[in-house]
Amino acid sequence: MLLIRHSIGSRLFYQTDDYSIEPKEEKWIISVSISEEEVKEILNFKQELNLFVVEEKQKTWYHSSHGEIVFNKDDQQLTIHADNQTVYPV
Fold first, then answer.
1. Which of 38, 39, 51, 88 is most buried, by the most CB atoms less than 10 A from its CB?
2. What's residue 74's pLDDT?
3. How far apart are CA 69 and CA 27, in angstroms?
4. What pLDDT digit, counting tens, does each position of 33-74 carry?
């Protein structure tokens, strides 16, 4: 499960099981299927997002230091370029 949260106050913007994460050089490309309506708040706070992947035995935190986030309206796809990753055991 992927959770997209506000870094201040940890407000939940979006939760989904429909996502992918691909490592690329020293970054992670996170892609999420999301509607244009649901993505509005995320884009408004793109500099202040924390992303968490919650699995059975670990939680992984991703962060985009520079707010590298793009929404493609045609395919309803949000792409986040995260440059920080921390893995925590649960």
1. 51
2. 96
3. 13
4. 999 999 999 999 999 999 999 999 999 999 998 889 999 999
The pair of three-digit structure tokens given for residue 41, joined into one six-digit string = 């708040």
* Of residues 40, 30, 58, 62, the one with CA closest to residue 49: 62
- Residue in the structure block whose two tokens are 């244009």: 36
- 19 and 31 in contact (C-beta within 8 Å)? yes
* Secondary structure (DSSP) of the chain: -EEEEETTT--EEEEES-EEEEEETTEEEEEEE--HHHHHHHHHTTTSEEEEEE-SSEEEEEE-TT--EEEETTTTEEEEEE-EEEEEE-
